[in-house]
Write a structure and sequence with these properties.
By secondary structure, this protein is mostly beta strands. Helix content is about 10%, strand content about 45%. The chain has four domains: about 1-155, Rossmann fold; about 270-350, Immunoglobulins (Immunoglobulin-like, Sandwich); about 355-580 and about 590-600, Pectate Lyase C-like (3 Solenoid), CATH 2.160.20.10; about 625-830, no CATH class. It starts with a helix and ends in an 18-residue tail after the last strand.
Length: about 850
């Protein structure tokens, strides 16, 4: 009938202790609670509403005991207290619902003075830390149930099996956790001259207790390193010589042992100001963290004394001498009092506030302090050969235009929450940071923001470590040149630079890894005559090329390269080495999209099917070596594998498209050799600068070396395209029996029988080509019901321009025929060649420019 949680827990456990000493097989309290909770009965109210049979089924018992607290009254006055506790208890048979036993009683406990028994001494000691009411409640509950349980009917059992009697058990932790060296004292009262012990939950069993006076037993456990337990219940045991044992649980609380100190605090940083050092650190994550201790010394290795104990993650150490170096360490403490090891020391130097003007040569080791920021660079700063310039985290450097030139060493180590800033005054351009022939000197720039420079960082024969920086909004982000430049460029954001993200020149060999090279105005990376290693980067959304290489051999491995303006990667050197760019993610699994985004001699046959690092390698259908036989799936010819030799008939069928990359050359062996298109297509689109060439494989080529360049043999729903191509030295360049291929901006020349033969109902589009010097039947032959469209071409120097036996008039208007008006003898058949062009069609492609 009371709502007091303390009364409920203590009175319930008190009854259980007395009941468990009887010769019944009882279900332990923690097990009762656990089984009821699983069944959804998790409050006293729900227990009261459940019938005994249901409870018996859940607990697997023959009987259940219900209890109700009827009285709970308290009076306290100094060392005197009075407490009344009453309870109504009944035992019910779960099968018949019959009442087996019932009792009701009230006890009033009067207490004054201080007990000198072991139990009394412990209760007196812990009364300062615990609620006195709880202690008196324990005493009253103990008295209430000691007599009450004697009225219970005892099972038929030999009296010799009756266990000893325990009357009370207490322990002295008072709910406070214990650490290494602390002791846990347990006192118990019961029958004299017995064997006593106690358990600390399942953590430690059978800890011996000594009988210090008749019926009073005391045991002590001392905590040692690596002891750890949370909320363990103390259980006492009393045994006689026959082995009969009684047990008793502590009703006042649980025991927690914590010997693990918190982790060493991380990311301790300092910021010097006028007369003080401001310290910050990351918050520890332990749930029982209590506070931090800050230690200070004037030497790095010894002499540390505590200056503050604080719950916060920052502290200002005031009253210090400017330009004096102080050393700080930090430790964390938990609620038990365990203290972590101290952190590594950091330095802090109080300084007068900025701005601080700097210029000229630095010839001895110098520190720029964050507290003296901003540093204003009035004239060029030159760090001389033997000197080191150290820049503290959080420092701001502003230049009026000149740069910072390093011949010695630069140590600019910011932090994630204290980046160093380099920028121009009033958003003006400045000279950036320039390393001059420092070679292997271990300079570092990390966690810095470098912006507003002509070139953010320039390396001449220098190899500093450049990591975790924001290099943005410069004209060029980084420039690296000369063979002695082998820097590691890692984990930087190189973005939104006006022109180039990273420029690599003149034999430099940098490693670019884990960078984000994005949103630069032109190229992400330019490599000229150099050999960088480019891996694990994201190179995307740059204005022109992701990577542009010339006379270079970069290794491009496991990057994410996509969504760049013109190409993801472009090798502009047609005669140079093939760039190894396998195992990269190109923004898509679509092979056509991948191929269209890569230009020049680049090997990318193995690509990733998803962004790195999750993507898995898969092989693109890029053909290599000599070609013949059947192509029955979409396939690609690339510059990296060019030239290709057509050594036999090559048939495109089964709905496949053969895509030919710009700049590819196909060489045909002599004889009856052709590429034959059945149910398939060819997509051969070069550019004016990088045309696709179909030619003879002979060392002394001549017209008629091989049968035909392309034959369209069957009807197909697929379309073929030829743009900026050269077709030469065949008997007939095109034999078009079926289909509507587009032939545009191409040169068809030096073929022995004709340039293009058009048959049946085929209808090719022939625009802006040069068709010249084809012998035999001439430039174009059209038969059957073919209906080509032939416009804006230069058709010159052929025996016949067009011969047609088609029943349909041929549309051949707006072409240049070599003269104006054209010679009518150039035309045979139904050909509409009026109006003609009065001069050469300037847009028509005429082949290689000499």
């Amino acid at each position: 009938k009371t709502k007091s949680d303390e009364a409920f827990e203590i009175v319930r456990k008190s009854f259980y202790n007395h009941f468990s000493s009887l010769p019944y097989v009882d279900r332990e309290l923690y097990k009762v609670d656990e089984m009821l909770k699983k069944a959804g009965i998790d409050t006293p109210e729900k227990v009261a509403q459940s019938d005994s049979k249901k409870l018996g089924d859940i607990l697997n018992t023959d009987a259940v005991i219900y209890g109700e607290i009827t009285h709970y009254d308290r009076i306290f006055a100094g060392v005197y207290s009075q407490i009344a506790v009453g309870a109504h208890v009944r035992m019910v048979d779960v099968k018949t619902n019959n009442l087996l036993w019932e009792a009701e009683n009230v006890t009033r406990k009067h207490q004054g003075g201080i007990s000198t028994t072991p139990v009394g001494l412990i209760l007196t000691a812990i009364s300062a830390a615990m609620n006195v009411r709880q202690i008196e409640l324990l005493r009253a509950g103990d008295d209430l149930f000691r007599d009450m349980v004697k009225t219970l009917p005892a099972p038929t059992i030999a009296e010799s099996l009756r266990p000893p009697i325990i009357t009370i058990l207490v322990q002295d932790t008072a709910g406070l956790p214990k650490k290494v060296g602390d002791t846990i004292k347990v006192a118990m009262e019961g029958d004299p001259k017995k064997q006593a012990s106690f358990d600390i939950g399942d953590f430690k069993k059978g800890i011996t207790m000594r009988e210090v006076e008749p019926g009073s037993y005391v045991g002590i456990y001392q905590v040692v390193p690596k002891d750890n337990v949370s909320e363990a219940v103390i259980t006492g045991y009393l045994s006689d010589d026959a082995g009969n044992t009684a047990k008793w649980i502590d009703v006042l609380g649980t025991v927690t042992i914590d010997t693990e100190p918190p982790a060493i605090p991380k990311e301790l940083s300092s910021f010097g100001r006028d007369g003080l050092v401001s310290l910050k650190w990351d918050k520890n994550t332990e749930h029982d963290l209590a506070r931090y201790k800050v230690y200070r010394s004037t030497s790095p290795l010894s002499g540390y004394t505590e200056v503050v104990s604080t719950e916060f993650t920052e502290f200002q150490d005031k009253g210090l001498q400017n330009l004096t170096t102080y050393y700080y360490k930090l430790a964390a403490l938990d609620k038990t009092g365990n203290e972590s090891k101290m952190s590594e020391y950091i330095t802090g130097v109080p300084v007068s506030p900025g701005p601080t003007t700097v210029r000229g040569n630095i010839s001895q080791d110098t520190i720029w302090y964050a507290g003296a920021s901003p540093y204003i660079v009035e004239d060029q700063i030159t760090v001389m050969d033997k000197a080191t310039l150290t820049i503290e985290p959080g420092t701001i450097v502003k230049s009026r235009g000149p740069g910072i030139h390093i011949y010695g060493k630069l140590s600019a180590k910011g932090k994630q929450n204290g980046m160093i800033t380099f920028e121009g005054m009033d958003n003006n351009r400045w000279g950036g940071i320039v390393f001059q022939k420092t070679k292997e000197k271990d300079s570092v720039i990390e966690y810095a923001q470098i912006k507003g420079a002509i070139t953010g960082i320039t390396l001449f024969s220098s190899s500093p470590k450049i990591s975790s920086n924001d290099i943005s909004k410069n004209d060029t982000g980084l420039s690296i040149s000369d063979p002695f430049s082998k820097p590691e460029i890692k984990n930087n954001a190189i973005s939104r630079n006006k022109d180039i993200g990273v420029l690599i020149l003149a034999g430099a060999n940098p490693v670019l890894e884990d960078n984000k090279i994005i949103h630069n105005g032109k190229e992400g990376i330019v490599s000229e005559n150099s050999s960088p290693i480019i891996s694990h980067n994201t190179i995307s959304n740059n204005g022109t090329y992701g990577i542009k290489a010339s006379l270079s051999s970069p290794k491009v491995i496991e990057n994410n390269i996509h969504d760049n303006g013109k190409n993801e990667i472009y090798n502009s050197d047609p005669k140079g080495e093939v760039i190894d760019a396998n195992n990269n993610w190109w923004g898509s699994r679509n092979i056509s999209k991948i191929v269209s985004g890569i230009s020049g001699k680049v090997d990318y046959r193995i690509s990733l099917d998803a962004p790195y690092p999750d993507g898995k390698p898969f092989e693109l259908s890029i053909l290599k070596g000599s070609l013949s036989g059947n192509i029955t799936r979409d396939s690609y010819l690339t510059v990296a594998n060019s030239p290709y030799v057509i050594e036999g008939k090559l048939v495109i069928d089964n709905g496949a498209t053969l895509t030919v990359e710009q700049g590819v050359t196909l060489k045909y062996n002599s004889g009856d050799i052709s590429i034959i298109v059945k149910n398939g297509a060819i997509n051969a689109k070069g550019t004016k600068e990088e045309m696709i060439t179909f030619t003879s494989n002979s060392s002394s080529p001549s017209a008629g070396d091989y049968s035909s360049t392309i034959k369209f043999e069957e009807k197909t729903a697929l379309s073929s395209f030829f743009k900026y191509c050269i077709f030469e030295y065949a008997s007939i360049a095109f034999v078009i029996r079926y289909g509507t291929p587009d032939i545009t901006y191409s040169l068809i020349t030096n073929n022995s029988q004709s340039g293009i033969n058009i048959m049946n109902d085929s209808a090719p589009k022939i625009f802006y080509n040069t068709i010249s010097n084809n012998t035999g039947t001439g430039g174009i032959v059209s038969t059957g019901m073919s209906k080509p469209k032939i416009n804006n071409n230069n058709i010159i120097d052929n025996p016949f321009a067009i011969q047609s036996s088609s029943t349909i008039f041929i549309d051949a208007r707006e072409n240049w025929w070599g003269s104006s008006p054209p010679n009518e003898s150039l035309f045979l058949g139904n050909i509409n060649y009026k109006p003609w062009l009065n001069e050469t069609e300037k847009e028509a492609f005429s082949g290689r420019q000499k």
